[in-house]
């Protein structure tokens, strides 16, 4: 995962919990998931547009 080992992931998780608090972490994950999903959908739709223009 991005060249990170388990110790690094654990440290990043602990820092995130300290900075944002345990109640805010699920909200941040949800927002990140929606953003990535939207980004992926846009990339897929651009690929479809590009393919139809080539034909």
Q: What this model shows, in words?
A:
The structure is a single chain. With 55 residues, this protein is mainly α. The protein has a domain at 23-55. The chain has helices at 6-20, 25-54. The longest helix has 30 residues, at 25-54. The radius of gyration is 17 Å and the shape is elongated. It starts with 5 loop residues before the first helix and ends with a helix. The relative contact order is 0.07. The mean pLDDT is 83.
Low-confidence stretches: none
Radius of gyration: 17 Å
Using DSSP, what is the number of strands?
Answer: 0
The biggest sheet, with number of strands, parallel, antiparallel or mixed sense and barrel status, is: none
Proportion of residues in β-strands: under 5%
- Outline: elongated
Report the structural category: mainly alpha
What is the mean predicted local confidence, pLDDT? 83
State the helical fraction: over 70%
CA(first)-CA(last) distance:
38 Å
Oligomer category: single chain
Helices, by number, come to: 2
Give, in order, the helices and strands. HH
Question: What are its keywords?
Answer:
55 residues, mainly alpha, 2 helices, elongated
What's the topology here?
Layout: H1 6-20, H2 25-54
Task: Offer a quick outline of the entry.
With 55 residues, this protein is mainly alpha-helical. It is built from two helices and no strands.
């Amino acid at each position: 995962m991005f060249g990170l080992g388990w110790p690094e992931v654990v440290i990043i998780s602990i820092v995130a919990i300290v900075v944002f608090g345990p109640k805010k972490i699920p909200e941040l994950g949800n927002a990140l998931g929606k953003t990535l999903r939207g980004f992926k959908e846009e990339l897929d739709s651009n690929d479809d547009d590009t393919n139809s223009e080539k034909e």
